[in-house]
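Q: Given only this backbone (161 positions), what sequence would you predict?
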């Protein structure tokens, strides 16, 4: 069964193929605190991320990255189920480096060494470039307003705004 996300990515790839062979589309987004930003959607990277997501992540985060319906409610061990990655959860609150690190190394651990979540470490299964592709895919799902807010937070964290 072909998911609607896969069809969307294919459509994006076909549309971007008309742009002199480029696989990147740029879209200008307004921000609240500074100059507009360019949102780059690399269709090849997004398609790779979709494939990796379906293979490794959809089981917990949902086929459309919608997350577990109880993602805000901790389980008996105090861990939260998989959150949405589609822009409706809290992933957009975190800088890219943190998103990358959680995918690579799994849930952070508390002072006793106990994981604070259920996210497994994927760093031995997928490489850094593939992790970047996963992030590119789920960020492509984020509405423009959410992406712009994420971008501004990331810039503030870097001291750039």
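A: Predicted residues:
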């Amino acid at each position: 069964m072909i998911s609607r996300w896969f069809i969307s990515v294919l459509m994006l790839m076909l549309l971007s193929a008309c742009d002199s062979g480029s696989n990147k589309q740029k879209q200008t987004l307004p921000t609240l605190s500074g100059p507009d930003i360019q949102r780059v959607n690399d269709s090849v990277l997004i398609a790779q991320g979709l494939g990796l997501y379906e293979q490794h992540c959809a089981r917990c985060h949902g086929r459309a990255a919608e997350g577990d319906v109880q993602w805000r409610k901790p389980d008996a061990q105090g861990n939260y189920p998989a959150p949405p990655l589609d822009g409706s959860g809290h992933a957009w609150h975190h800088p890219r480096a943190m998103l990358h690190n959680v995918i690579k190394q799994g849930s952070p651990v508390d002072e006793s060494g106990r994981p604070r979540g259920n996210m497994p470490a994927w760093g031995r299964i997928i490489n850094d470039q593939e992790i970047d592709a996963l992030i590119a895919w789920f960020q492509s799902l984020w509405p423009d307003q959410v992406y712009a807010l994420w971008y501004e937070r990331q810039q503030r964290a870097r001291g750039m705004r």
